[in-house]
Fold these 2 entries.
Entry 1:
Amino acid sequence: MEQNEILAENPDPDSRIFGLTGGIGSGKTTVAKILENMGFSIYYSDARAKDLVNESAYLKSEIIKLLGEDAYNKDGLYNRKYVANIVFTNPGKLDVLNSIIHPAVKSDFKNWLQNREDKEIIFKETALLFELDLDKECHQSVLVTAEDNARSKRVMDRDGKTYREVLNIMNKQMPEKEKIKRADFVIYNNGTLEDLQNEVEKVKSEIMALQF
Ligand code: ATP
């Protein structure tokens, strides 16, 4: 996206929103934490979406209409496993589910943004930023990427998944090459955590040098 392209629907004219994304195990959450430690505000879209499906009565009723009562457990909490199983084999339902959840996250982000004082530069962590064309809701994008081997090893260590399970997920995501083409800034995470910290510092300097 062009650096000074104007957002069609800018949620806050005082803010510059950077979409932060990366495939499974790329290190985007680690980068978000580094940025947070540097003092930036981060909106975690995926974590908020997970909360909103439980907090919002409207979302709950729409999701039950789409996927049935079993989309929520007896205790009233969202049944992620059940929903994942249905949408895994039914991409049409996944699209509708995303179209139900997305507007709720969008308005939650808008509220979050309005309540911030330090909102000149905001990072919005979103796993499917490019896949769902959500980069159009950000001024610019930052991609965290790493070699497949490093990513799969990290996810196997973190989640106890098998190599094949990680590979299946990686193969369903947008190819890294395509994401690299779309991103305005790319952070390569193939080394140590210290290397990653240095890479983030570099991108921070480039962002701070931009004229908004
Ligand atoms: P997901 O989309 O699967 O949630 P993610 O992109 O948010 O993944 P992280 O959770 O940040 O990725 O990183 C995956 C795992 O790899 C974490 O356990 C993290 O601590 C570890 N990790 C990230 N970068 C490095 C690195 N450079 N060296 C060692 N471990 C790393």
Entry 2:
Amino acid sequence: MSGLSSTSEAPRWVRWPEAHTLADGTESLPAGAARIGYGADYNPEQWPEEVWADDVRLMREAGVNIVSVGIFSWALLQPTIDSWDFGWLDRAIDLLHANGIAVDLATATASPPPWLTEAHPEVLPVNRVGETIWPGGRQQWRPTSPVFRRYALALVEKMAMRYADHPALSMWHISNELGCHNVYDYSDDAASAFRDWLEVRYGSLAELNRAWGTAFWSQNYSTWNQILPPRLAATHPNPTQQLDFARFSSDALKQYLVAEREILRQVTPEVPITTNFMVMGETRGMDYADWAAEVDVVSNDHYLLVADPTAFEELSFSANLTGQIAGRAPWFLMEHSTSAVNWQPVNQAKTPGQLRRDSLTHLAHGADAICFFQWRQSLAGAEKFHSAMLPHAGENSAVFRSVSRFGGELGTLAEVAGSRTKQARIGILFDWDSWWASELDSHPTELLRYKAEAMAWYTAALANGLQADIVPARSVLNGHGLAGYDLVIAPMLYIVPQPLADALADYSRSGGHLVVGVFSGIADADDHIHPGGYPGAFRELLGVRAEEFGGLLPEQTVRLSGDLPGTGSLLTHDVSVETDVDVLARFDDGPFAGVPAITSRAVGTGRASFVATVLDQVALVAVVGRFAADAGIRSPLPAGVRGSVQLAVRQSGTAEYLFYINHTAQVVTVPVAATDGSLTAVDLGGSTLTAEALTLPATGVAVLRRARTEA
Ligand code: GAL
């Protein structure tokens, strides 16, 4: 198994096909040859078969070695309730194999065919208002529908039986982006499954009533049947009901994933299984840190949001988090885009060099396969304006030339395949429960954004030229611990069950430095307040106590002065401190003028610090710089390039691979010789490396190698 639960077992990876003679008489690579996967979603069913020959010719030219096939093919594979047509898929897969292209075969269940929703409209999801989500788009199915499951699993079994022995079958791709459009379903099926889930979680109605705090507003339940998903209510629905529904919805999809997987494992135990996660942007419905243990290979889809000024940092953050979810083992970038997408309000083409930079940023964070949506740009349908490897303009196009150039370049990076991302010394905790619960309604402010807070700390680390890992809080509880981290930051860790509070207290008392951000440690796993003053779960450790929250209006800021000056926004706490606490900054004005805003305290052999507001980015950079320096963490990058260049490191048994990534549109020179003279080039891609310096072109990425001396 892969992911957070990984044991000493070697992680599984794509089962590359055995060497065989290709259609042109050449030999394909042996299965064990090192390579980076390169390819796309391939939808041959959208094209006449004459086009397929051209597809494989151009795939080979571009260096494509794997494609995902069949993702949205259900209606063609099973045209009616009792007829099947696998002929076209057989021919497509045979053709790919004859051309040395491996197949990541989808189970084809992502989007139910019209005959199914006609015969069984009860598989259609229902939104919180009670409206049916109709067919016409895709993924219109209820995760908990027994009827959907019956039909979908029959298809999975057919697929598994039919292709079990096909030599091109290299990985199973379960469904597609589970939960992309249907994570929250409020139907009667969902209601009934939610009740079952709650019964397992709480065991008794009394316990549920306690956890949900139903003494409030006359919500006490006397039978299980009274319990519903949080459908449209007169006013704020019960917060614990909302949080549990978020947990349940993630679990319901995970259970569905497991149901498909079990069939595949029975028929083809030797074929690895994946499903494409969506660790990106504000996609939050699925707790992937929890899902990772269920797949053999962690895969991710990532798209940049062009309107986001921190889009590139977000890419780096998401790639980093995906790597952590994968237990720092290699993962598979299943989708990103060669250029514009079609689903944002304005869709921008990528600039020259961006395809390479974005791809290599994923690779730097552990991706061993770089794939796109999709191979050939569609002529019809909702995604006809979405870029592809082979655009409408055809092979004589800048995009196809970049795609082919990059495919060739991946050959030079083959030695990186299989290496793991190197643990950073800074860990930033990330937690889905806190994401879900901290942004619920009826809070001190509706303006706080969990992901933005975590991103702000990550960006501040990058601005200091430091590497930071985005560590799922779940992994701390799973016993993976925080060993190796000298500085651990908990941004907006709102939900803190006692075992997590204890683990973090142990971490700081035994030599680590824990930094707790605004609106952290507020509630327990049931979303009940830790009483006695905020932040209850960390109050004793931090030596601070706050009695009130001070919400700030959207444009309102407060000044901080002291060792770490700056401005705060959105929320403040009225902090009082124990005598042994150092006050590093105080609020000058705002609701709590004069009270401590940033505090730090020695605990055991470590330290615990608190930041009682949302700091402006300059101040946050200073805070991270100061705490990192105190912990003895120094940037390997010279001051002049910090924030412009990101350094990410992977390591194998014998080498470290250093990825220098230029975030800017300017040429940047990094005096690498000053930090290490023994670097050799793996892939420069337009950069120049001399004995003294590495010069990166605008948006350039260079991959250098350093022999490892330690084990
Ligand atoms: C993903 C999806 C693909 C395609 C792509 C477009 O959500 O898996 O099928 O729709 O987005 O960006």
